[in-house]
Write a structure and sequence with these properties.
This protein has an eight-stranded parallel β-sheet. A six-stranded antiparallel β-sheet has the order 3-2-4-9-6-7, with no helix packed on it. It starts with a strand and ends with a strand. It is built from ten helices and 52 strands. It is mainly β and about 800 residues long.
Length: about 800
């Protein structure tokens, strides 16, 4: 977060009757909140009034108010407020004066308060109305309120505006890097000014390595752009998970006085997308091992402290992930800062719908129109340029960003092109996942030519969005996630793109690479399955993939017939950020280091059958080639009925694996013999220790799971033993059921109650289960896989203690967290 922290001392109420012009309204009964704040996640899940598309959580009409004093520092200055995100349809007021309306919930809002402020020493009031009464206005959970941070900027009359620098690196190699800095300078005086811009370049260790000075004259009321160039020899490159960052510190000198210091972090890296070689990063062929992420984080909703994101990204990094797609909207400034710091590549996406709305409940072209599902399409034409370019001004200096995505599966809302492919209404009956287009390219092209011209055409809108994108930054390619590339190549959609993203369309990779060879391609929405990654390894021209999804997310859960499902279960991590079986499969594919993971299931519940000789088989031996989002039903425990036949699956990149039960060797198997990349054994259950030893390139590792007895205790674990009251600091407290020998109990579930002492704020409790509709704000939780998690923040100077109990079982340990009040 840049600027002055403006997140504390806000008041909030859910009330449609508040009068915005009344500064002296009694708000004593309003709730005290610290931003970011998502009010929807505080609600209980509601089957009757809620909707599965947004996770059965409600919206409403909310009001926020904050008082602040006009200080001497603000006099004869420009005072700006930046809201990094308000969901949504917000009206903003200062001292009763309406400033503006902002409908899109994912863009930063920059407001000049200078002309609205009261005289020095007097009180000012910022009021924000947030209208999320259309609470099912998206296909996923959005949150409600001022759910991202707020900053204040106090700038001199001659200034570098907020987001006023643009840094690009036209040449980067291991030997030399050229840095171009374009700085906007604004003169708000009534007379011309002579200014000097002094820019200092610092290396990642903080050593000043270059200085550039430029003198200019700027007329009254005008803006000028100043260009400066730095050359760095033997640069320390910003790399994947090795994120060296330089800093440019600019000093604006007016009348021999330094009136402003402006800092920008930068990363020196090079990349290109080649039509035949795929992704080249810092001069080396690199595979994009990406995941798509929505902006919620389960139990905390969309007001996500950075510690929560850091924990989740660390886990994704551990499984080999190196890239994030911000599906399907711009992310927060803080999230991008974290990706810069941690060395994740980012594709930032702007929109999920353009001219025409999607059906929020069923993904495709809108079928049913009602009030609560009114989304952003009605504002798109008027606000698209402003919103898109505002995001880019904020984000274009982030080294993590490698692509701008102008849209996600937009084709659904221009259905005439989809019909022209033959997929719909022809013999395939919509089976676009696994079959090539039923019509030839020539027939599709001819069909498209015969289509009537509509008010809005997908190709026309795409070209406009791409043009607006390149006006702000032309150093990254413009891409989109295309669900039907065979339609998009002929509709004019891909003509606007620098490269084409494929949404679950591996079947078209080779076909379109041959017939449309001029644009690089990659997977931008993909299944977390071996068959998906296998295509990348076999086709050099595919730059990589973005899996759907990295983490389970609230919403897109269907209608009330799926109740109590509140979330989508396609993630590598669950809603609480716990690893799922698919996580370990992708780790075996993406990581260089040897890895092992054991999953088990009874034969009757598994994917397999036993033949007459006792060997496993699948009815369809090639079923693995078309597995979809959710992983097969498997367990991570060794607790079954004695002699019951159990399938043991091992997800590994080891060349060989040997299974042992109670130190008795069962059998050694070889990965090359398993086409689906999953080691498999079937053995009769016997209580004890199930162990696998794997070997890869001479390295030997082992992994085991042990039968647990009855639950006799609760083990508490925390990732923090000290917390300040910084709004981004949290402690993740995990409660795990254990037996009398301290072995994790995964096959039994119980309700755990947390007992806390001290001054704290509970952000939520959860077990990670997409089918759990327990209230997030409770102090108790039914476990899933024998565990659940509490997230808390510090609210005082008293140490926080956490214990847990379940029926007559108490936690075997107490968590003690030291606190202080330093931000």
């Amino acid at each position: 977060m840049r600027g002055i922290d403006f997140n504390r001392d806000w008041k909030f109420t859910l009330d449609e009757t508040v009068a915005p012009h009344m500064n002296h309204i009694d708000d004593s009964t309003w709730k005290d909140v610290v931003l970011p704040h998502d009010w929807s996640v505080d609600f209980p899940f509601n089957k009757e009034e809620g909707d599965g598309c947004t996770g059965f959580l409600l919206g409403g009409m909310g009001w926020y108010r904050k008082h602040f004093i006009t200080t001497e520092e603000m006099i004869d200055k420009e005072v700006w407020i930046v809201f990094d995100g308000i969901y949504n349809r917000s009206d903003i007021y200062c001292n009763g004066h309406f400033i503006d309306f902002y409908p899109y919930g994912y863009v930063p809002i920059k407001i000049n308060l200078s002309s609205y402020l009261n005289p020095i020493g007097q009180d000012n009031l910022i009021s924000v109305k947030v209208d999320h009464t259309r609470y099912a206005d998206s296909r996923w959970y959005t949150g409600s309120g001022i759910y991202r941070k707020v900053s204040m900027y106090i700038l001199p009359k001659v200034n570098i505006p907020v987001w006023g620098t643009y840094i690009n690196t036209p040449r980067v190699s291991k030997d030399v890097a050229v840095i171009n800095a374009e700085t906007t300078i604004s003169n708000n005086f009534l007379e011309a000014k002579e200014i000097k811009l002094v820019s200092n370049l610092y290396d990642p260790e903080g050593k000043k390595i270059d200085t550039q000075e430029t003198k200019i004259s700027i007329d009254a009321g005008k803006e000028l752009k100043v260009e400066q160039t730095f050359v760095v020899t033997k640069p320390k490159l910003w790399d994947i998970h090795n994120s060296s960052q330089y800093k440019i510190q600019e000093e604006l000198i007016v009348d021999n006085v330094n009136v402003q210091t402006y800092e920008t972090k930068i990363g020196l890296r090079s990349f290109e997308f080649d039509v035949d070689k795929g992704f080249i990063f810092n001069g080396e062929k690199t595979l994009i091992k990406g995941v798509c992420l929505h902006h919620d984080a389960g139990l905390v909703g969309t007001a996500v402290p950075l510690d929560v994101w850091r924990r989740r990204l660390e886990k994704l990094k551990e499984c080999g992930c190196n890239a994030i797609r911000t599906a399907h909207n711009p992310t927060s400034e803080d999230f991008l800062d974290l990706c810069d710091e941690m060395g994740f590549l980012v594709q930032e996406e702007f929109y999920d719908e353009w001219d025409n709305p999607k059906d929020k409940r069923y993904n495709g072209n809108e079928i049913k129109v009602d009030y609560i599902t009114r989304g952003h399409a009605e504002f798109f034409k008027q606000y698209a340029k402003q919103d898109l370019q505002t995001v880019m001004y904020r984000d274009r200096n982030h080294p993590c960003i490698i692509q701008w995505s102008i849209g996600n599966e937009i084709e659904w809302t221009y259905p005439k092109y989809n019909i022209a492919t033959g997929y719909f209404g022809a013999e395939t009956n919509g089976n676009y996942f696994w079959t090539l287009p039923p019509y030839s390219i020539e027939k599709i092209r001819e069909n498209v030519k015969l289509l009537p011209v509509d008010k809005y055409e997908v190709g026309d809108t795409a070209k406009i969005l791409a043009k607006w994108t390149k006006e702000i930054d032309s150093t990254r390619p413009v891409i989109a996630n295309c669900i039907l590339p065979c339609a998009s190549y002929e509709s004019g959609y891909t003509d606007a793109l620098d490269m084409v993203g494929y949404s679950y369309r591996q079947v078209e990779y080779e076909y379109n690479h041959i017939h449309y060879p001029d644009k690089p391609i990659m997977g931008t929405e993909n299944l977390a399955q071996w068959h998906e990654w296998k295509h990348v390894l076999e086709k050099e021209y595919i730059a990589g993939v973005f899996l759907w999804t990295g983490i389970d997310y609230l919403g897109e859960a269907g209608n009330t017939t799926v109740w109590p499902r509140k979330a989508t279960r396609s993630g590598l991590l669950d809603l609480a950020g716990f690893e799922k079986p698919s996580y370990y499969m992708m780790k075996s594919l993406w990581s260089d280091e040897p890895s092992l993971y054991i999953a088990t299931q009874t034969v009757s519940k598994s994917l397999y059958h036993l033949d007459d000789t006792g060997n496993l088989y699948e009815e369809d031996k090639d079923a693995w080639k078309q597995r979809l989002w959710e992983w097969q039903d498997v367990n991570h425990h060794w607790n079954y009925t004695e002699n019951e036949m159990v399938v043991v699956e091992v997800y590994s990149n080891c060349e060989s694996a040997t299974l042992y039960l109670n130190d008795y060797m069962i059998e050694t198997k070889y990965l090359k013999d398993f086409e689906d990349h999953i080691y498999k054994w079937v053995i009769p259950f016997k209580s004890g220790c199930l162990k696998v030893i794997g070997e890869k390139s001479g390295k030997v590792i082992e992994y085991s799971i042990t039968s647990a007895s009855k639950t006799s205790g609760i083990k508490l674990m925390t990732d923090k033993v000290r917390l300040s009251n910084n709004i981004d600091e949290v402690a993740h407290i995990v409660a795990q059921l254990i037996d009398e020998n301290g072995i994790d109990v995964i096959h039994q579930e119980q309700t755990i109650q947390f007992i806390l002492d001290g001054k704290y704020s509970i952000l939520g409790v959860d077990n990670g289960d997409a089918d759990s509709v327990q209230n997030y704000k409770s102090r108790s939780c039914i476990t899933k896989n024998g565990r659940c998690m509490l997230i808390l923040q510090n609210k005082g100077e008293t140490d926080i203690t956490v214990e847990a109990k379940s029926d007559n079982i108490n936690s075997i340990n107490t968590i003690s967290i030291k606190t202080n009040m330093c931000n």
